[in-house]
Amino acid sequence: MKIATEEAFATEGLMKAYATLLEDGAPGEPGLADMVGRLLKPSNEWTERLAGQLLDLGDLRLTQMDEGGIDRQIIVLTAPGVQVFDADTACALAEEANDILAGAVAAHPTRFHGLAAIAPQAPQRAALELERGVGLGLKGAIINSHTKGEYLDGSGFQPILEAAQALDVPIYLHPRPVAPGVFATFAERQFDGAFWGFQTETGLHALRMIVTGVFDRFPKLKIVLGHLGEGLPFWLNRLDRQFQRSPRNVYHSWTAKRLPSEYFLENFWITSAGHNWDPAVRFCEEVVGEDRLMLGVDYPYEVCKQQVDQSLAINLKDPEKFYELNAKRVFKLN
Ligand code: MN
Question: pLDDT > 90: what percent of the chain?
Answer without folding.
Answer: 98
